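FORM 7B: Structural annotation worksheet

SECTION A. Query
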Amino acid sequence: NDYINGPLPDFPRSTPRVRTLDLSNQTQIDSGGLTGTISADFSNLDDLLVLNLASNRLTSIPSDLGGLDKLNVFDISSNALNQLIPSELVKLADTLDILDLSAN
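SECTION B. Predicted structure
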């Protein structure tokens, strides 16, 4: 089983060149998937173009993600978001091609 279970890992400043991060579909029958909040450390991924966190059990989006000014795709559909979407995500309007918040 190669699924991640529990909170999302933190991403230190030593990984800023990551361009695509796909941690989707971690929720399986024998795995609870990714849970909790998205760490503000994700904002350290300055070159991130694609962030796919779909089909997990994440509960909130940090306002810091509004600083990912190269992000083209942000998919956090089919999670358990239970807080308001941060207004700082409006900063991404010029760069985002896809924003999927469905099924939350």
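SECTION C. Observations
The chain has a mean pLDDT of 86. The first strand starts at residue 6 and ends at 7.

SECTION D. Sign-off
Analyst initials: ____
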